[in-house]
Amino acid sequence: MNVDGSYKFFYEQSDGQKREETAELKASAADPEVQAISVSGSYEYTDNDGKRYLVTYTADENGYRPMVKQL
User: Structure pTM?
Assistant: First the structure.
């Protein structure tokens, strides 16, 4: 984590699963004087049937919002 509260990471496992995430503090839409964390990222995985998926997401003061795509 950086001094300003932000962070970024990425990893890939030997089975091909991947994850990356970035976070930063932003002014809240409801009150610009209040800082809110905003996280965005993605991960890939393979289900039990061998289908591969990519999930991208944002999580902030408005909740967690994932989008799933079969690869």
Answer: 0.81
